[in-house]
Amino acid sequence: MNDLDTAVSHWIHIVGNGIEIFGVLVIVLGIGWSTFLYVHHRMGEAHYDTYKIRIGRSLLLGLEVLVAADIVKTIALDLTFTSLGLLAGLVLVRTFLSWTLVLEIEGRWPWQRGERGSKHRK
């Protein structure tokens, strides 16, 4: 049974690391693609707003993926009160970052009603 636990733990660690790498790639590739489009189609301040929105969306998606990786690694591998507290802290910080990015992109807090993305939909 101990060998099975070790093997499962090893694979969960690999899956968690894979999810983390994917989250970082989402952010890096999103910023790279947004920058490419901005440089290639530069058309003044209106296009700069689109550039910021694209970067913000990449960051939001990347943060969500990184939170998922933290949850997988913490809950499945090392569930202690200390690791759970650290996970809660990470989730709070990333949630706050996500909320502020939504505020920057859409001009409203995530819990406010209204047409989602109507301000800058492109």
Layout of helices and strands, plus pairs?
Layout: H1 2-40, H2 45-77, H3 81-106
Helix pairs in contact: 1-2, 2-3
Question: Can you put this structure into words, describing what you see?
Answer:
The N and C termini lie far apart (54 Å). This protein has helices at 2-40, 45-77, 81-106. α2 (45-77) runs antiparallel to α3 (81-106). The chain contains three helices and no strands. It has 122 residues and is mostly helical. The longest helix is centred in the N-terminal third of the chain and has 39 residues, at 2-40. It is elongated and about 60 Å long.
Task: Spell out the key features of this protein.
mainly alpha; elongated
Q: Outline of this structure?
A:
The protein has helices at residues 2-40, 45-77, 81-106. With 122 residues, the protein is mainly α. The protein is elongated and about 60 Å long.
Q: Main sheet, how many strands, which sense, barrel?
A: none
Helical residue percent? over 70%
Q: Terminal Cα separation, in Å?
A: 54 Å
| Number of domains as seen in the coordinates | 1
Q: Using DSSP, what is the number of strands? A: 0
Number of helices: 3
Structural class by SSE content: mainly alpha
Order of helices and strands: HHH
> Regions with pLDDT < 50 over 5+ consecutive residues?
117-122
Determine Rg (CA atoms, Å): 18 Å
Average pLDDT number:
82
| Fraction of residues in β-strands | under 5%
Described by the principal axes of the CA atoms, the overall outline is elongated
